[in-house]
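Our collaborator T.R. sent over the components below with a one-line note: 'Predict the complex.' Nothing else. No constraints on interfaces, no templates requested, no preferences about which chain binds where. So this is a plain run: every listed entity goes in together, and whatever single assembly comes back becomes the starting point for the next discussion.
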Amino acid sequence: MVHRNRIILTVFAFLGAGACLAEAQSLAVVAKPAAKPAAKAATSEAAASPAPRTADGQPDLQGYWTNSTVTPLERPKDLGEKAFFTPQEAAEYAKKQLATAAPTGPGTYADVHYNMAQFGLEKNQSKVAASIRTSLVVDPPDGRIPPMTPEARSRNAERAAKSKGHEFDGPENRGLAERCIMWGNEGPPMMPAGYNSNLEIVQGPGYVAILQEMIHDARIIPTDGSPHLPSTVRQWLGDSRGHWEGDTLVVDTTNFTDKSAFRGSSENLHVVERFRRVNPDTILYQFTVDDPSTWTRSWSAEIPMTKIDGPVYEYACHEGNYGMANNLSGARADEKKAEQKQGAK
Amino acid sequence: MIKFLGAVLFLAALPVWAHHSFAAEFDVTKPVKLQGTVTKMEWINPHSWIHIDVKNPDGTVTNWMIEGGSPNSLLRRGFTKHSLEPGTEIVVEGYQAKDGAYRANGRDLTFPDGKKLFIGTNPDEKLSEK
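Returned assembly:
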């Protein structure tokens, strides 16, 4: 405990006057080996050193990171406004989340899969950023995403109704991930991908670039004060512009398309991300999303990113996407079977 | 089972466990257990594919394609494209493709002696190691 207190203190010293207790608490647990992971360099000495700089004087966020986490996006309702576990509760929770998946019964749909454990794809087989938070969502105070507006509900219901019964008509009917266009983790805001939740940050004069392993996109973020693209230009990942506020990289993203809806959002989605290297092994990643045509209010979340050994491997999803043809072929086989059944009646 | 209702334009925000719906591709009523020799391993995303020659009871040979996980995580664990050379004998348990092709998912992959083909890190070791 002495050790932990020292870390809280030094994290405070490092964060400076603006730090809040909640933040220091959530980061302190990186020293708890039972919650796994991250932690080896979270020594008090390291945390007390000033933020590292690039050759041209920017706060240095470069390197390989993982945003893998056991913390759920939304807080379970029964926890109410309890934003933090005790370190012991957090360790128990992490252990449960990192447990190897239970075996599935032969001949059940849950069994039709490949063995995630064998392929090293279970969360317990990679580094996991530790936290004692009970949810990634930090605002609203109940840790849950605010309700959708009636407009968003009807928009999303319309979309669902339109696609119903046509899910396998052709490749364009399949989800963006299956088409290898983008995965749900890419954002912004950037979320853990489930596996291969790795990213690489590179900085140069006037730019920060972020490569996410899943599934292939590099975000090139100008930090030169240039304005957003004209509103007529819409992009899968939106248009991101960054600036530095002290040691924090702040990235503002607009110009989304309505095709890459983030949790049912519209093209009016506005995302503000904040990246701060709170110790040599951790970037605290915070974001606020706002879209009045989707949610009744804006909401915010934070995810600690932990340093990992590189490299980030190429994913090249399109190159081997046999799954697309196989899924459509499976659907055709299903249809044929249904027709034969119909004919036999 | 998860259906892709309304998924056309949607993105799930938290973990996408698999690249696609397995139940759409493979037939839950066609479990297979195959023993064969590796002819090729494709280290490709979003899924690796292992090709094996399987001897049928009548003496003919069928080449099967077995779908596995993303190779990126195997590379991180030190497996390389030389880790599963042609000629290696393996046993596959999975489910055959719905369209009747000689494809199956690699539910469990073992060597004939029962040892697992790929072995991820033991989580308990990992906990004490870090």
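Summary for T.R.: Confidence is low (pLDDT under 50) at residues 1-48 of chain A.
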